[in-house]
Amino acid sequence: MVPRFVDLTGPQVAALPADTVAVLPLGAIEQHGPHLPVSTDYVTATEAAEAAVRAVAEAGSAPVVLLPGLAYTKSDEHHWSAGTIWLSWDTLMRTLVDIGRSLSTSGITRLLFVNGHGGNSALGQVACREIRIRFGLRTFFAHLSVPADQGGRTSAENEFGMGVHAGHGETSLMLHLRPDLVHMELARRNVPEGLRDYEHIGFGKPVSFGWTSDDFGPDGHVGDPTAATAEHGKTIFEAAVGRLAEVIVEAHRFTTP
C-alpha cells in the first residue's frame, strides 16, 4: 500500500510521525520528439516515486508519505513546440516554496523532490535552500538518474553521452511503463556529434551552454531511441526505484554535524 498525503484527514496529517519524509515527484509536460508522449517526464517521475514510497512503507524502513506529482514545471527549452506547457522560472520557484511553506504548517519537516526533468535541476536546488532557510525543512533533490547534460551517463554508447532528451534511456523507460504511448515507427537517431569537437563546452562537460531543443533539429529529441527496449527500461526503472528507496531512508535519518 502506498501512503498518500491526499488520502489523509487533517488530524491524520498532524499525527504523522516526526521526521516523516514527504516525497514530491516533479515531472513536465513537454514535447519528446515524434515518438514519445508529452507526459513522459511526468509518467517516469510519478511511477518511480510511487514504487519507491511503496517499497519503503512496506518494509517499514522509514515513515514516508507521497504527495501528488507536479506536472507543469520549467520546460521553456521546449517552448517552440506544440504540446509543451511550462511555468516561468519565478512561477515555479514560488510554487515550490509555497508547497514547502504549506507542508511546514502541517508539521512536515522533511521534503524530497523526485525529479524526472533535467530542466528543473538548477531551480529545484535553489528552491531546496530557500525552503530550508525560510521554514526550516530538511530538503532533498533527487533524480531518477543524473541527466546526461549534467554529468550523468547515457545508456547507449553511440549517443556519446548526448542522450539528453527522448533518447535510448527515456524511450526504454516508456516502453516498459507505457508502451501504448510509444511510437517506435517514428523513432530516429538524432545525436549532435559536432559537439564532440569541443573539449570544454558540451553536455556533461565542465562548461555548460544555453540551449533549446530545436537547436538540434526540428524533431526536438536529442539521442538515439531506435534501439530502445522494454527490457532495458525495466532495468533502468528497477535500479532507479531501488536507489530512490535508499534515498528516502537516508533522508529520514539525515542530519548535519
Describe this structure in words.
The structure is a single chain. The chain has 257 residues and is α/β, with parallel strands linked by helices. The chain has a 4-stranded parallel sheet, with helices on both faces. Helix 4 links the parallel strand 3 and strand 4 (138-143). Helix 2 (40-59) crosses helix 5 (168-177) and helix 5 (168-177) crosses helix 6 (230-253). It is built from 6 helices and 4 strands; from the N terminus they run H-E-H-E-H-E-H-E-H-H. It starts with 9 loop residues before the first helix and ends with a helix. It has helices at residues 10-14, 40-59, 89-105, 121-135, 168-177, 230-253; strands spanning 21-26, 64-66, 110-115, 138-143. Helix content is 35%, strand content 8%. Keywords: Hydrolase, Metal-binding, Zinc. Its cofactor is Zn(2+).
The overall strand count is: 4
Largest sheet: 4 strands, parallel
Radius of gyration: 18 Å
N-to-C span: 35 Å
